[in-house]
Structure formats: C-alpha cells, structure tokens
Amino acid sequence: MRKTILVLVAFMLITSVVTKPTPVFYDAVGDLSFCLYHASSLGKFVSVSQTDYKNPFIMNGSVKGQCVKNVDAAYAEQVVKRLGAKLSRVETLADCKVLYYYTDKLSDYKTIDGDKINLQVVEKNGVYAMGTPMIFEGF
Question: Which residues pair with 46 in a beta bridge?
C-alpha cells in the first residue's frame, strides 16, 4: 500500500511539473494576467503581481493563457526574439495592428486558417499587449 501511495505522489509531482506553462513575461513591466480553465474568452481572467507571476505554485495546470498589457515596442521585440517566434500573419483591426506568431518553445497553440499561433502581439497607439497562446480578453 505504501509503495502504491509513493508511486501516485511521484506521478502527481512529475505531472505538475510537466503541465506547468512556461512563464513567458517574467521580466515585464506591464499589467500581467492569467487566463484560467479555458483557452478562450470563456476563461476566468486574473490579474497578478510580478512576484505572484514568478511563483511556481501560481503557474499550475489551470493556467491556459498568459497576457501582459501596456508594454513598449522594445519589450515586445525582446520577447519575440527570446522565443525565436516566427511571424505567421498580420491583421489591422480598426486602430490596432495584430501580429500572430508561432514558436516551438511554447507547447500550447491555436490554429487560424491552418496557421499555428501561440503568441499574439497587438500594437495600439505605440502601446503593446502580448498573449500566449493568444490574448483572450480585450485589447
């Protein structure tokens, strides 16, 4: 019985490490949030502090998306470069420029017209928002 319990505990620990999302915006000086439970606009959005964002216990399997808002162009370029993200498509929506990227450094992705997307960058009036796999709340 004890051996079975130890195996189950080991499995839970390994699973929790494997399923944790990569903290992408760990060095951001913007407004950070998580999308919980659903990788869509149906998720619950939670604002977090920079300290909480870096907390490995916060980054659990219920996190389905990450977002940072109110960052500058230099930071957006830094994240794209750090992830080795490749531009997949560009859209203009009203006064926003929307860039869609894909990188194999992030495991989750969405598919839009056959393109894999896992990093979305939106520029509006020189201010940027970024999300993985997309921005699920308004920008």
Answer: 34
